[in-house]
Amino acid sequence: MITGGTFDKEYNELNGNLQFKNTLMPELLRLGRCRLDIHIETLMLVDSLEMTTEHRKLIADSCKSCDESKIVITHGTDTICETARYLADSALGAKCIVLTGAMIPIRFGSSDGLFNLGASLAYVQTLPAGVYIAMNGRFFDWNNVRKNKETGFFETLDKI
Fold it and tell me: Averaged over 85-114, what is the pLDDT?
């Protein structure tokens, strides 16, 4: 599921802003030579700082209603932990949900996004049902993770 975030942002050469056009997911799966049977659903393209409870409800409802039991969600890193908490509190049943994002837009070439996507696809196939965040080559339980805004890395809460 696609929700936006830095993952899908592109640089607007006219005004210098980062903006959304379309999801880059099909291209990323092709570049990664992915051979999984994947259904891509774009729910929204928003910056996670602008994500509301209504957006999170849409994500949860989409997770509940889809047939798949293994779900990867691309999301902005600033509020990914809040969405993970919302999903964990939403009684989604026996589904494995992995949220991931990028610190640098994919279009910039030096992004961590493709790496995080690949890790997320591996984690969602092997982890038990639950809600997780995958960043920086690691997965985290939804209730034991934070984004360290000083280092730009995700870490477990017990490191605080």
Answer: 87
Q: What is the 3-state secondary structure (H, E, C) of 23-90?
A: CCHHHHHHHCCCCCCCCCCEEEEECHHHCCHHHHHHHHHHHHHCCCCEEEEECCCCCHHHHHHHHHCC
Q: Which two tokens stand for residue 36?
A: 């999984």
What domains lie within the chain, and their CATH numbers? 2-159 (3.40.50.1170)
Residue among 73, 81, 159, 69 nearest 116 (CA) = 73
Q: What is the pLDDT of residues 101-123, one digit of tens each?
A: 988 777 777 778 889 999 999 99
Q: Which amino acid is at 156?
A: T
